[in-house]
Amino acid sequence: MDVFDELLRGVRGKGAVFGRSVLWPPWSLRFTDGAYLTLCLPMRGAGWIVPEGGEPRRLAFGEAAIVRGPAPFTFTDDPENSAGTTVPGTAPGVREVRWGDDLAPPDGHGSELAGPTVLLAAAYDVQAEVPLRLLRALPPVLVVPDEDDCGPLRDYLVAQIGGARPGHQIVLDRLLDWMLVCTLRDWFDRPEAEPPGWYGALGDEVAGPALRAMHEDPAHPWTTAELAARAGVSRTTLAKRFTELVGDGPVAYLTEWRMTLAADLLTRPELTVAAVARRVGYADAFGFSAAFKRLRGESPSAYRQEASAAARAPGRAAPAG
């Protein structure tokens, strides 16, 4: 199993495209929905992303940006303009944007891709613990050029805008999901990216086979000796190399990975704590509960109750990190 695929499998758009946003200067869009990630794609023209408390980043056609929340941010034509950084209601020209908003210009200027600047954006309210292992390593704002698969994908996205065929919104959502993964993959390949240690270790000839084995079958009763055999090295060599690259030894990493999987499984009400324990490699609920509390600071039952309450709460905030 490709670990990158596994980590991002549960990331899906919210079904709301902030698209066909025809922008005529002066303009400022302030995104206040608290999404964990927002994907921004200029279909025409350029602008500036101004994160709250951060430095402006220019975003132009041919580039894609991912903004990590939940703090608000602004997409503006002029970062020096106070409208780009001021709370809505205190400066003219600021439009507040939330999930599901229609960003068509209020004065009727332009349509579809007409206009000097057109923005397409999608929000991702990531709550699952598995993808957050990777996404927490992202900077507040990242900008990458469309390269390889991402360039043709953008062209196809443009062709789909304004369509009226059945399932049109689903098609757009999935294309945006694809564009998000494309952008993330390109970012983590760039020299300025700082991925977590385990991400880089996947390509290592010693640590990589052990990591992939644990991800493919986390419930297996792995030992350091068995994992070393997968890599074709001694236990000492594996333990040393693995710790150097990942920051933890193989057994500690396996325990942490199992608890990450368990956190997501505990959000499924049809699974008992004992069933979750078995799925992540524990023969009984007692040993699992002790390990979960040691790493997470609360019992599986308490975690389940909090997750259930958060899922029912309207307008839940994205996780910090």
Describe the structure.
By secondary structure, this protein is of the alpha+beta class. The protein is 40% helix and 16% strand. The strands form two sheets. It has a five-stranded antiparallel β-sheet, covered by helices on one side. A hairpin with a 5-residue loop joins β4 (46-51) and β5. Residues 82-90, 102-112 and 316-321 have low confidence and may be disordered.
Set down the secondary structure blueprint.
Layout: H1 3-8, E1 21-23, E2 28-31, E3 37-44, E4 46-51, E5 57-60, E6 63-68, E7 73-76, E8 94-97, E9 117-124, H2 129-135, E10 141-145, H3 150-160, H4 168-188, H5 197-201, H6 207-216, H7 224-231, H8 235-246, H9 250-265, H10 273-279, H11 285-296, H12 300-312
Parallel strand pairs: 2-8
Antiparallel strand pairs: 1-9, 2-7, 3-6, 3-9, 4-5, 4-7, 6-10
Give me the count of strands. 10
Helical residue percent?
25-40%
- Rg, please? 22 Å
Low-confidence segments, given as residue ranges, are: 82-90, 102-112, 316-321
Strand order of the largest sheet: 1-9-3-6-10
